[in-house]
Write a sequence for this structure.
């Protein structure tokens, strides 16, 4: 028999059950409104407390600190600009020195080439003297031709 009652409670033909609260709806609404009001008051208190954390009381002190900070910023910018100008000037000087060094290297190569050519000419002029013919004279046509060739 219990089995039939249990099956009947699980089926469509089960008796309807109404669950009633013990408090009327007006009391429940009043309690919900009071809880919401307490939550809002608590949130406002936390917000005001957070807004006032670390805030100095004296407004003039805040303005003075702001002015000091602005002055420090201005000095830092001036230092930065001065150092940047010095860096640009140093880079320009370095590029000028590099160009001068390259130019001196080119001149040195040209002088070394002239030196080698002159040594070759000197060897040409000394060959007759080394063979025993004697030193060439200034009015020698070969010497004049070599001098013109230079």
């Amino acid at each position: 028999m219990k089995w039939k009652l249990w099956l009947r409670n699980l089926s469509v033909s089960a008796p309807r059950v109404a669950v009633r609260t013990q408090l009327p709806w007006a009391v429940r609404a009043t309690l919900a409104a009071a809880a919401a009001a307490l939550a809002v008051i608590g949130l406002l208190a936390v917000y005001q407390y957070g807004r006032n954390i670390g805030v100095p009381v004296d407004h003039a002190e805040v303005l003075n600190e702001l002015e000091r900070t602005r002055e420090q910023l201005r000095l830092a910018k001036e230092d930065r600009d001065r150092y940047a100008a010095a860096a640009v000037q140093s880079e320009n000087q370095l590029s000028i020195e590099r160009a001068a060094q390259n130019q001196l290297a080119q001149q040195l190569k040209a002088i070394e080439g002239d030196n080698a050519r002159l040594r070759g000419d000197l060897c040409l002029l000394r060959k007759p003297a080394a063979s025993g013919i004697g030193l060439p004279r200034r009015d020698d046509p070969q010497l004049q031709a070599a001098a013109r060739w230079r």
Notes: The chain has four helices and no strands.
